[in-house]
Design a protein that fits this description.
CATH architecture: 6 Propeller
Distance between the termini: 43 Å
Order of helices and strands: EEEEEEEEEEEEEEEEEEEEEEEE
Radius of gyration: 17 Å
Number of helices: 0
CATH topology: Neuraminidase
Shape: globular
Structural class: mainly beta
Oligomer: single chain
CATH superfamily: TolB, C-terminal domain
Number of domains: 1
Length: 285
Amino acid sequence: MQKLCDGYSLVEGPLWIPGKGLLFSDVLVGGVFCVDPEGKVSTVFEHRRGIGGMSLHEKGGLIVSGRNISFKSFDGGPTITVLDRDEENDLVGFNDITTDSKGRIYAGSLGSSPVFDDGREPQAGDLYLIDLDGSSRKVGEDVQLANGLGVSPDGRTLYHSDTPRRVVNGYEIAEDGSLGPKQVFAQIDEGGPDGLAVSEDGRVWVALANGGHGVGVYDPAGDLLEIIKIPQPMCTSACFGGEDMKDLYIVTGSGGMDSDRAGAVYKQRVDVAGLVVPKARVALS
């Protein structure tokens, strides 16, 4: 395992971009950064805090979460809000996101902030779908803390971490993007499930936060196969990258360390390629 960079507060939203490297956010301090295969770090976007998930958009920019779901262009154009928060109805922001094969976006909402003190009692969030025409609707409910999202290789199952409940749930995906009833895919015994990624063989790779010390690898039936250990307790997310998609990138927060700037990015070679997460294709208006 190779440590590529460190010195961040809470690293989230890892996203591989071919030809560039790994993008990641610093939730508490703010900013989106890119670390290339040689370990050189550059700044992509400054300032914005709270980004828990990112996706490439076909228009040449990123869809980012946080206080809302927004599009940020790589060429410096204006930020476009795709799905806004609604604090009066206990929707204070969004955490992880993912896309399906059609380019639709699934986004986990937050009923209260897990990292910023907003004066609210902890409240459950929901699961939203942003369709290709830019419209949005609620497709899942009662997620105590929405975290990692991913889609199975056949496109028929959506995985979603609920961290405090220590489960990764699975939902059957209908043709129109609607979801079937929530079903427990995996019960997590070490740490709490955070970000996740899916490999071509259907394994689900789940970051185990708050004492999990790594990434749990679960087979398509939800059984734990192994834990890829890292030298930090706050494992926040993981994604695949590299030319052959067999590099597993693992990101961390500072929790449990001696410094509040101990968040880091690690890279581990694995035996299977990860799925390429499709670009978002939702309308920008």
